[in-house]
Amino acid sequence: MQPVVRILAHCLMGPGSNKNKTVFVVANEACRCLFPRSMHDVNPMAILAMRSLLRLSKTLDDEFDPTELPVTDIIIL
């Protein structure tokens, strides 16, 4: 299972993942399919890896950037 997790992580976080949205979507769907499989096999390493990839793909899919400063016309003292 480890080689599959590495390939999916590369598809989600790799340098071309931002340019090719279909690779990101397919890798995300593969993670969703493999998570129940790892739960069924009771493989703790695979469960942790799949859960981490699912959380990572959720945060990468969001447009929110916590390091970006908000732009407003209101001055807060």
UniProtKB/TrEMBL annotation:
Location relative to the cell: Cell membrane; Cytoplasm, Cytosol
Gene Ontology biological process terms in this record: phosphatidylinositol phosphate biosynthetic process; protein localization to plasma membrane
GO CC annotation: cytosol; plasma membrane
Keyword annotations of the record: Cell membrane, Cytoplasm, Membrane
Keyword Membrane assigned: yes
Similarity comment text for this entry: Belongs to the Hyccin family.
Listed PANTHER family: HYCCIN, HYCCIN RELATED
Protein name: Uncharacterized protein
Species the sequence originates in: Arachis hypogaea (Peanut)
Lineage, top ranks: Eukaryota, Viridiplantae, Streptophyta, Embryophyta, Tracheophyta
